[in-house]
Design brief:
The protein is α+β, with helices and mostly antiparallel strands and 391 residues long. The chain contains 13 helices and 18 strands. 31% of the residues lie in helices and 26% in strands. The chain is globular.
Amino acid sequence: MQSPILPGSWLGVIGGGQLGRMFTHAAQRLGYHVAVLDAEEDCPAAQAADMHFLPSDEEGTADILAQEMSRLCASITLEFENVSAELLRIAGQRTRVCPSADFLEVTQDRITEKSQLVAAGFPTTPFRPVTNLGAVVEAGEELGYPLVLKTSRSGYDGKGQVVVRSEAEVEAAWESLETNRAIAEQMIEFEAEVSMITARNASGQIESYPLFENEHSNHILSVTRCPVSSPLKGIEEKAEEICHGIAGSFGVTGLFCVEFFVTKEGELLINEIAPRPHNSGHLTIEAFTCSQFEQQVRAICNLPLVPATMIHPAAMINLMGELWEGGEPDWTKLFAATDSHLHLYGKSDPRAGRKMGHLTVLDQSSSEAAITAKELRDSLIAEYPSPASID
């Protein structure tokens, strides 16, 4: 059995985004040192980390730095799945890596992921692998329209996917993806989108958070609330059973998130797995006894996991780059609001569709918290006088 990795040790993160930043804060609070491997000099995680391994454009430098990180760090984890699995394998020759390179490869490829989930008996959206135009047409005949056509790799936040509503749209949709390996999925008329975050340590202990209920805008998560609405309460036990089954079947060590569709019949269908913390889990920082980031630290260090106990109903709302279009947001009302918690990620270039931060609100119910979060988000839009009103 792996021994626990205790405070004072170094932990590594491959990827330097906001998830790595919040992992770094959690690890440092527990007494660990954190090193980040990312090619962006001013990435959010590197701003907080104790050390930054910065690859150059020269081929092979990332591999060399992964070796250096593995010599320094007692355990290495991920904050973004679109990285080379080979980096994890290189690091894994010298130190623990969580998740494994094998599990990362499964979750990096939609065809592999769904095929292995189905083979293991887990429910997924109906799909067909497609490698050419004719295969997409056949998928449309088998699954019906509309279809969601997705690249097999590297897609996130709606990138790398297109809705195909009829056979007449197939050719243009296929060409737009610019790939010869994709997946055609039946478009699900769902009642809700939910997610569940699960951690597993090397000793085999597993803990899941309750279901999170998610709203999306332009394919990007907008609002998450917990607890879920009453009609969804009955599926929490099934979701946990699926997540625990995935953790065991794939031998996961670390923390992962399963995104589900809830059908009109109340069935759960797996949309995809993220082998890392998840945007929907940000509210765990204030609303639970242990955040998803501390749970990730515990899992990769083989420490005891903390039961996911909710302290207060909550909602989280993403703060997107659009809020900065009229200038710096007006933070006044937000700071005047009780039980609201602002997290900014240190990104210097706000642009449409970019997550700049998030806001978590605690309230008597998650629905009330969601309403307040939206109102506070809208209050951030700076109101400037029109040119005609300026003397």
